[in-house]
Model the fold of this input.
Amino acid sequence: MTQPLAYRMRPRTIDEVIGQAHLVGEGKIIRRMVQAKMLSSMILYGPPGTGKTSIASAIAGSTKYAFRMLNAAVDSKKDLQIVAEEARMSGTVILLLDEIHRLDKTKQDFLLPHLESGRIVMIGATTENPYITINPAIRSRTQIFEVKPLSEEEITHSLLLALKDTERGLGEYKVEIEENALLHLSRATNGDLRAALNGLELAVKSTCENEKGVISLTLEVVEESVQRKALTHDKDGDAHYDVISALQKSIRGSDVNAALHYAARLIEAGDLPILSRRLLVIAFEDIGLANPSAAQHTVAAIQAAEKLGFPEARIPLANAIVNLALSPKSNSAYTAIDAALSDIRRGNAGEVPDHLRDAHYKGAKSLGRGINYQYPHDFPNEWVNQQYLPDKLKTRIYYEPKTSGKYETALKQRDEQIKHWKEGARE
Done:
């Protein structure tokens, strides 16, 4: 049976990896490890189809070490023993262990000494957060790297390579793909290169040649192949971003009907990850402290939508959209952190005051660290007048509370009370 295109197009060396420049780019950690031949076991975590297996395969190809693949959920301890024996006989083996978050204690106990000896370089792959789902004993023996969704440009580049590659790709077929079809294929899969390549292969192999012997891939063919509709009226390719922008601006402007309209466009296009991400941003950026419970409701709605999938996912999403659109609005926290970041990026930071510095290590007292710090819980109102900002920023104000919601109105009252206490302390 012919292997899928996504399998055939896996990178053979680190130079062929698409995306993940923060890990495999020039001077970055995984490339440095490969070049120095100083590999250590690692865990790669991120969404499906973002290159976890590809990176493992490329590391093996670049180092010429043996490469084996197992699944922590379905492969047995005996399978691990076979890999360990191979490593003992022939040297280092790179083991890609998929779904590592499902590794049971028996397999873990067997694997740990081999990781410590370096005979097996394990590359664990998972879509789960390893800091939550993976046993500390494994975490302490590995480095953890996040793998991110690929950009549209990176996916487009990969698709074009696959269409040209006569050895591993689809170069033996004479294919013409419309620009908007290629764009939709790169967008509809939401950063999942495996899904994009699978969609391309299906489109090519299920489309008949025309009278000129050419396989013509139109937008309609690609939509059918990936089972995602493109946004309508997308003549210049900008409708995708225009609709997302319009959704956020409609919610920000408290127009619930417009918000539902633009959300419906994204729902019809099947863009659950994009819609979910945007609603989370809106909840914290535009509603913020005016109605903090809106963010909690949005998170719950997104979690429900992800479990349900379309078409039912539209129901919790609609609840979140109506709630966000009709909530009071505040961007005070968002603008406050940006103002603080602006100072830091301009080099306007200053020294941490001595009385706030860590005083838990030997010799800290002799350096004046932590001396004269006053513990607020020892004072009335759980507050005491002392300086917290560096000297050069001690009068700087970042947070300007608004009064568009009850919660932030209460925060403003507390802020004003503290200012009153400060003024009284200076008199």
DSSP finds 19 helices and seven strands in the chain. The radius of gyration is 27 Å.
